Amino acid sequence: MDQSRFFKSEAIVLKYFPLGEADRVVTLYTPGEGKVRAVARGVRKVKSRLGGHLEPLTRVRVLIVKGKSLDVVSQAETLTSNIALRGDPWRTACGLYLAELVDGFTSENLGNPPVYQLLRQVLETVGRTDDPDRALRRFELQLLRLVGYAPELHHCVECLADLAPASHSFSAAAGGILCPSCRGSDPLGRSLSLNALKVLRLFSSSDLQTAERVRLAPELTLELEHTIRYYLCYLLERELKSTAFLDLLRREREAGERRSGKSEAGVSSRSR
What we know:
The longest helix has 31 residues, at 241-271. This protein has a five-stranded mixed β-barrel with strand order 1-2-3-5-4. A three-stranded antiparallel sheet has the order 7-6-8. The chain contains eight helices and eight strands. It is of the alpha+beta class. The protein folds into two domains: 3-81, CATH 2.40.50.140; 89-251, Recombination protein O, C-terminal domain (de novo design (two linked rop proteins)), CATH 1.20.1440.120.
């Protein structure tokens, strides 16, 4: 048996799509091989031994057989099912967003163990927290750093001057911050507050525990999300599919909170 045709690895399932009547093409992210696309044969059959192990966002151990056109998943064993993450629509949407980012910014068969560890860590965090925004923002910035697209946050990308405490502009095309004197060089740049710049710098260099301790006002949370999303879409040259679902769920949550607030106010008023 030619052992070079096989490899066994831990992996996180990013996504899949159907192939024929019973198969799926599964996209996995592994520490050593990077992104791997492989066929899971018969996985859609009721009695398949692979089916329950290859759901998106599941951490698995797989045995892959290398093929001429597509690799084949020969064996799969669940290591972490991430049930808490996959059992809640909001957490699921956040997890799928992380998976889409890794899929978009990584290449096939090019290992990057720090990316794998980052994805694993943040998926676990999203599965246990009620407020994943800070973990998501840090993930975005750390992923960009690991794949070579980290934005410049300490010097003006036009004049190279140190950035003084002030409101600046973020230029996706230039890859970072424009100082007030240079912001006109990119009319499509987005205004960036001083507080947003400080948080971007912190999330770019801090560990996850530090990022989770940061308290953000709702307006600052949205500013950070929109700024980073603007940069990600520029780099990928497309809108991220999962953000539409995230936005929908956020609107529904906010509407529910407003309704709940009005209901509580009504009860309080009647009790008086």
